[in-house]
Specification:
By secondary structure, this protein is an all-alpha fold. 77% of the residues lie in helices and 0% in strands. It is globular and about 70 Å long.
């Protein structure tokens, strides 16, 4: 049947667009193997080693860039299309690695992280929407979850390259990926949803033919394809009766569907950041040192990057079988339990008890938490976000939610170290565990299951 050929083109488009998120993963993970060298007397910067304050701003700059990328790409994706906006992200990616090549002080590296974050803002805005709008219902969740999988692949790859290759060689390799994206993605059409909304019926039908595996305009289509095309046309028919197509009214923003989607979206973004995993990943070396591990900082990062990869891979495999909601609940509950055990260990150690026999526990807890987090909380909020938002205000609503994500992420990178000083490791871990438990309960009671449902069916559930 058509399933194999249609899925082939959807897989191809997903692979091409995820070259962007792989490169964003490079930008995220680049600091881990590079900071030790940049802060040493052997630093490649002519201005000398970077200070702790400069290092914190290099780290946090990615979130500032992500915020700007989100705001600009949200507007661009609605006005100029998902494809052109995705192509926009490749430009700062290329510039960011050029910044590393020519850098002679910390400000170049802050600019590099800002540009990398800008591209990340575009990725997390456009890629979930692009994939949700080209995919068949039966594989939409699986394809959408590849965003974080490919990002984690980029992080792991740059950890490995940073451990084995010279500092100056890495940016030249990284430059190949945005160039490969431009070369491959130029042959992929924009989404049928966007083209139909712009009243370009012919191109919309041709795009749908491509993503459903019909190679020529004259090839006989199935009844299933015809029904999908009619539904696509009907989705926007009501908008064209009395309201200009691009005009968003207060009624659109205050509808039950919109209010519920905004609440779920912002809470999932908070869950994603304040479960503690993002902050924990910034203290990988410290956690492994506490566990008594003999691994170096770089090898520790590679271990954690590998665990993330496995977790996000299993999320991709299971998302269309177990469903989004169940994976989010299992993931959140696993994080809460793992962090609570880790916190108890840290507290017992802090009050002077001998825990030498249990020094393996922090390593096991940390690894388990990262794995279960990658299974759901770190991967699936973006899938759900792209599915639950009303189609007419999707660009604006996703922009708002992703803006909140970058604000939360900035707080996580810049200020969570303060919590470790004030509350201690055990207090901070208990706080993360409590946030994870709260997020899990929120998902259980308020987030609908979207597995296998069409976007029209999801809209009815949300209303």
């Amino acid at each position: 049947m058509k399933h194999s050929s249609s899925a082939r083109n959807q897989y191809l488009a997903t692979f091409c667009v995820n070259l962007l998120s792989i490169n964003y993963g490079f930008a995220c993970g680049w600091t881990s193997p590079s900071f030790a060298l940049l802060q040493s007397v052997d630093t490649p910067l002519s201005s000398g080693p970077i200070t702790t304050e400069e290092g914190s701003w290099i780290g946090a700059s990615i979130c500032v860039g992500g915020l700007f990328g989100t705001l600009i790409s949200g507007w661009m994706s609605e006005r100029y299309g998902r494809k052109l906006t995705a192509c926009l992200a490749s430009i700062p990616q290329i510039l960011s690695w050029i910044m590393v090549i020519v850098a002679d002080n910390a400000y170049y590296l802050m600019a590099m992280r800002f540009l990398g974050g800008f591209s990340g803002g575009v990725c997390f805005m456009v890629i979930p929407t692009f994939i949700a709008e080209i995919s068949e219902d039966r594989i939409r969740g699986m394809l959408a979850s590849t965003l974080v999988l490919s990002c984690n692949f980029g992080i792991l790859l740059v950890y490995i390259l940073g451990n084995y290759l010279p500092y100056a060689t890495i940016p030249w390799i990284m430059l190949l990926f945005p160039i490969a994206f431009i070369a491959s993605f130029s042959f992929i059409p924009d989404t049928p949803f966007y083209l139909m909304r712009k009243n370009d019926f012919a191109r919309s039908e041709n795009a749908l033919r491509f993503f459903r595996g019909y190679c020529t305009d004259t090839q006989q289509v199935s009844n299933e394809f015809k029904l999908e095309l009619v539904k696509l046309q009907d989705t926007f028919s009501d908008e064209k009766q009395s309201i200009p197509q691009d005009e968003i009214t207060w009624a659109d923003l205050s509808s039950r569907h919109a209010r519920k989607a905004f609440l779920i979206g912002i809470c999932l973004m908070a869950f994603n950041q304040f479960c503690g995993c993002f902050a924990m990943l910034n203290y990988t070396a410290s956690v492994f040192a506490e566990s008594g591990s003999s691994l170096t900082a770089n090898m520790s990062a590679i271990v954690i990057g590998t665990i993330q990869m496995f977790g996000s891979y299993f999320s991709t495999v299971l998302v269309e079988r177990a469903g989004r909601k169940l994976l989010l609940i299992v993931s959140g509950a696993g994080i809460a339990i793992g962090l609570a055990i880790f916190a108890a260990f840290s507290y017992i150690k802090s009050i002077g008890h001998d825990v030498t026999a249990y020094n393996w526990l922090p390593l096991v807890c940390f690894s388990t938490v990262i794995f279960v987090a990658s299974l759901g909380v770190l991967t699936l909020p973006f899938v759900v976000l792209a599915e639950i938002m009303p189609q007419k205000i999707k660009g604006l609503s996703v922009t708002v939610c992703m803006t909140m994500l970058w604000i939360f992420a900035f707080a996580a990178i810049k200020y969570f170290s303060f919590l470790f000083e004030v509350l201690g490791m055990h207090g901070t871990l208990f706080l993360f565990s409590s946030c994870s438990l709260a997020g899990t309960l929120f998902v259980a009671f308020f987030v609908p299951e979207t597995k296998g449902k069409s976007l029209e069916s999801i809209a009815k559930i949300m209303s």
